[in-house]
Automatic annotation (TrEMBL):
The keyword Glycosyltransferase applies. Residues 3-232 form the Starch synthase catalytic domain. Residues 275-430 form the Glycosyl transferase family domain. The keyword Disulfide bond does not apply. It comes from the Bacteria. It comes from Flavobacterium ginsengiterrae. This is Glycogen synthase. ADP-alpha-D-glucose binds at residue 15. Pathway: Glycan biosynthesis; glycogen biosynthesis. Pfam families: Glyco_transf_5, Glycos_transf_1. It catalyses: [(1->4)-alpha-D-glucosyl](n) + ADP-alpha-D-glucose = [(1->4)-alpha-D-glucosyl](n+1) + ADP + H(+).
């Protein structure tokens, strides 16, 4: 089957969060399973773009209302990623270092979606499935069905995968003229709360809706930033599919970004070496238990709770605890975290920014990974951590609920229910006690290391959905 994944992010071309990891991995496994899988993302000015060779396979002009932007479709020449990667090059809109955060983000991603479809229709070969990811690609299922110029693609089946329902790509009807002409009697599909809501459009018009974990699918029926009712109404075409992780990239035995490779057979010694390297870099004491956080510093991830929870946990356990944070996000959270460095020197440190190599070393060298998320559609960090023998400390929500079981129930992690400073500190204290009980600590580690979160199995679940919508029009 010919499958297109359309997304704003794809690792290693362009990454902000977990969306990139999923779009960079799932297609590889779909290719391995015998499908022709292609990924299409905008052509940003990133390291990967600049260091790799691309060939131009199509060019045209994308029309966005009164504006006309020349565009090229570039194909990565070697297919070394395990699937065909295509970049939509619209220099005026995407030749910039960042992926999001510009005033014209709406124009950028609407133009991207139109250019993608202009190219697909020009190929004269109709794909079997287009899998859209998040709101940046939510207009595609609508345009395919109703825009006159894509008439020949109208029967292509579409799936929208929701990685984060908080962001929805809203814009006013004053920009309706950006869209290619369509029969106005269908305009209602575009509307949600008096706006054009790209994510809602995708949910309404796609043949199937997937979320990145089963629990998240349940949760968005009552908490989805205004889309609860819509999610309820499409329940019969929705499915929660837990993400996998790329076992080839995330393998402590082969990982070249860490200080010492190890497996479940020698994890104690291996992890200790990594911990020493990490602690040396951040002036911490490798004999103390190390709790780390990796991620975006936003309320959604519980980032706002981190400064206070860190201060409280450290002041209670100064003799016996290290905390390390890697991330960037809200400026006020960043500055509070930087401030804590002076108060807790030797026990705490923070790296503001993101660094893939450092993230790998943190997974390898930490004892615990903190994930106090308010919302977590799937969460990949807990799975990376477990694979590297690091115990996740999580709030039970979304995919965290589906992957982490408290060690009190013979599980692989530490869980709490509230997104609060008190709950985080309580869990840290439980972690400290467990750390002192090496036999049980190691059992929890081993349970995590043997969990099967590989993509092979997950990839099949996506293919089943594609087959169902192709054969029966329903899932
Ligand atoms: C988003 C979600 C995260 C999920 C990832 C990949 O970043 O916030 O929970 O794991 O997408 O699906």
């Amino acid at each position: 089957m010919e499958i297109f994944h359309i997304s704003a992010e794809c690792y290693p071309m362009a990454k902000v969060g977990g969306l990139a990891d999923v779009v960079g991995a799932l297609p590889k496994y779909q290719t391995n399973a015998g499908h022709n899988t292609r990924v299409v993302v905008p052509c940003y000015d990133t390291k990967f773009k600049n260091e790799n060779i691309f060939e131009c396979v199509h060019w045209g002009t994308v029309k966005l209302g009164n504006f006309n932007f020349p565009f090229n479709v570039l194909k990565e020449s070697t297919n070394k990623l395990g699937y065909e990667l295509y970049l939509i090059e619209i220099n005026e809109l995407f030749n910039r270092p960042n992926i999001y955060g510009y005033e014209d983000d709406i124009e950028r991603f609407v133009a991207f979606q139109i250019a993608v479809l202009d190219w697909i229709i020009a190929r004269n070969k109709v794909p079997d499935v287009i899998n859209c990811h998040d709101h940046h690609t939510g207009l595609i299922p609508f345009l395919l069905q109703f825009a006159y110029k894509y008439e020949n693609l109208k029967d292509v089946k579409t799936v929208i995968t929701i990685h984060n329902g908080l962001y929805q790509g809203w814009f006013g009807f004053d920009k309706l003229y950006y869209l290619p002409e369509f029969d106005l009697k269908h305009v209602g599909f575009l509307e949600w709360n008096n706006c054009i809501n790209s994510l809602a459009v995708g949910i309404k018009c796609a043949d199937a809706v997937t979320t990145v974990s089963p629990s998240y699918l349940n949760e968005i029926n009552y908490a989805a930033n205004g889309l609860e009712g819509l999610f309820n109404s499409v329940r019969n075409k929705s499915k929660g599919i837990l993400n996998g992780i790329d076992f080839e990239v995330w393998n402590p035995l082969k990982d070249s970004m860490i200080a010492e490779n190890y497996s479940i057979n020698d994890f104690e010694a291996g992890k200790q070496k990594n911990k020493e390297k990490l602690c040396e870099q951040f002036e911490l004491d490798p004999s103390k238990p190390l709790f780390s956080f990796i991620g975006r510093l936003f309320d959604e991830k519980g980032g706002d709770l981190l400064p206070q929870a860190t201060a409280l946990a450290l002041s209670e356990n100064f003799e016996n605890l290290n905390i390390l944070i890697l991330g960037s996000g809200k400026p006020e959270i960043e500055s509070q975290l930087i401030q804590l460095r002076t108060d807790y020197k030797g026990n705490y440190n923070v790296f503001i920014g993101y660094n893939e190599d450092l993230a790998h070393l943190i997974y390898a060298g930490s004892d615990y990974i903190l994930m106090p998320s308010r919302v977590e559609p799937c969460g990949l960090n807990q799975m990376y951590a477990m694979r590297y023998g690091t115990i996740p400390v999580v709030r039970r929500t979304g995919g965290l609920r589906d992957t982490v079981i408290d060690f009190g129930d013979d599980g692989n992690g530490i869980c709490h229910d509230q997104a609060s400073v008190g709950d985080i500190c309580y869990s840290i204290n439980r972690g400290l006690k467990l750390f002192a009980d090496k036999i049980n600590f190691n059992k929890v580690v081993q349970r995590g290391m043997t969990a099967d979160h590989s993509w092979e199995r997950v990839c099949q679940e996506y293919i089943e959905i594609y087959n169902l919508i192709i054969e029966k029009n329903e899932i």
